[in-house]
Each structure stands twice: as structure tokens, then as C-alpha cells.
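Try it yourself: sequence plus NDP, in.
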Amino acid sequence: ARRPTQRHAVRKEADVTDTENQASRRVIVTGGTRGIGRACAEHFARAGDRVLVCSRTASEAAAVAAELRRFGGTVEGVAADLADPEVGNKVVGRCVDLFGGIDALINNAGIFESTSLVDVTAEDWDSTMHTNLRGPALTSAAAARVMRTAGSGRIVNIASINGLAPEANFAAYNASKAGLISLTRTSAIELADAGIRVNCIAPGLIRTPMAEPWITGLSDDVVARWAPMRRFGLPEEIATVVDFLISDASAYMTGETLTVDGGTLARQ
Ligand code: NDP
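Structure, out:
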């Protein structure tokens, strides 16, 4: 048999290490029971990662975790409400208890409510802000404290194109997502020294339970006016970009927001 050259031997060793690193990622996905979060959790489960999915509903988090385990990896569920001021410690604490640390946090969960500025109430405003902005901030803080000790970590925030180009009648949602984009940049600056990269995705319309009522029954013409690619996105098409942002393929990126919208904002 031919002896492998030194170069081949080195490359092979690196491949094994990469595979092992890939398999050992400990990832939290908030809102991992439906839509984009579930697609992310499934993507990581298929890669053999250790995944903690969180949602407000304990039974759903447990059921989805059990379903996702059949794709491989280790998947657990935890019930936590992003509007709860203790959410960060609860979710990150559970991840550390289960997996001994955290490599990546995907701040995905969010709520989408139509509220025009003139009709907005303090209650509407607070519920959107607490879930879409304060929750991710507190969860990032708790995760960063653990990641800082380990000397590395990745955080990905799921914002929206509404945070970049606001639409009428979504005052609180637009502001919460613009805030999340800003939080991404602040976190990136503060945490770069600790080896923690923080990036953001601004999806366009993606086929999920949240978006379905808004997109069902739209004519092809309306869809084409909305997205030059003439279709809405699939949750998996966000999951692959999340994977890119937590992988070493994006090693020199931090503080960035990537638009994934089939060309919707390209026209602006
Ligand atoms: P879905 O409504 O389909 O799923 C939302 C997930 O988040 C569910 O698992 C839900 O579980 C969980 N969740 C909701 N509220 C909370 C909360 N307070 N605490 C913890 N978990 C919660 O949403 P999508 O997958 O469509 O959206 C995911 C993210 O992507 C959101 O941040 C959204 O704003 C963003 N986005 C989506 C777009 C789209 O077109 N779909 C476009 C742009 C951005 P449960 O209800 O059981 O708690």
C-alpha cells in the first residue's frame, strides 16, 4: 500500500478534528419548536450537534426535541418565555447543566403583531419589545458570561427586513427588529475581545406558521412584486445561513446583518 504523504496525513487529521468539532457544538435555539427555529434545530440535529430548543410551551418543547432526536444529535427541550426577565439564566443554565457549556446561541423566537403607531398601547409595545428585544439581550448576556470564560462563542440574532426598511402598521415590530440589529453591533463590539462573534440575519417573508396567514392566497403577481425571486423563502434557507454564521467559514465576520429575502430589499 502507498504511504500517505506528510501533507495528506496532516490534511486528514484536520478533517477529523473539524468533524469532531462540528459534532460537539452545543447550541441553544430559542423558538425552536416551529418555523425558522425548528428548521435550525433540525439542521443542527442532522449535523450531530447537541441542541437545546426553547419555547413557552413545555409539552411542545419536549415533543419537538423527541422528534428531532431521530435525525441524530442530542436534542432537549426547555420551557422559557422570552418576556420573563429570568429567561437568560434559565435557558443558558439549562444548557450548561445538560451539555457543560454553550458554543452558539440562536436568538430566533419573536412575535409579530400588527399595530399602527396611532393605535399602539403600552401593553402592545411592551409585549413586543420584551419578547423581541429584551429577551434576546438578556439571553445574550447570560450566554456571553459563559462563553467569555470558555474564550469563544457565537451568537446569531434573527431580526427582519422590517428592521431595515419599516412597513406601515408594524410600529413596535419594526422598532424591535431595528433594535435587535443595533444590539448585534453593540454585542459584537463588546464581545470581540472575548472570542465571541455576534451576527444577525434579516429574513424577508419565509413560509412559517407566523407568516402563513399573510401569504396564503396571494397571486403570482403580488408575490413577484414582493420578491424578485418570485417566491417566499423556506425556513431551511435561513438555517443554512445561521450555520454559516456559527461556523469558521465566517471567522472574520462580526456585527454584520445579512439580508436573506429573495431580493426584496435589493429594489430599494
Ligand atoms: P413562528 O411563529 O412560526 O415560530 C415562533 C417560535 O417562537 C415558536 O417556537 C414559538 O413557540 C416561539 N416563541 C414565540 N414567543 C415566544 C416567547 N415569548 N418565548 C419563547 N418562545 C417563543 O415564527 P417564525 O419561525 O416565522 O419566526 C422566527 C423569527 O424570525 C422571529 O423572530 C420572526 O420575527 C423572524 N422573522 C420571520 C419572518 C417570516 O416571514 N416568517 C420574516 C422575518 C423575520 P411558543 O409559541 O410555543 O412559545
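One thing you can check immediately is this: The radius of gyration is 19 Å.
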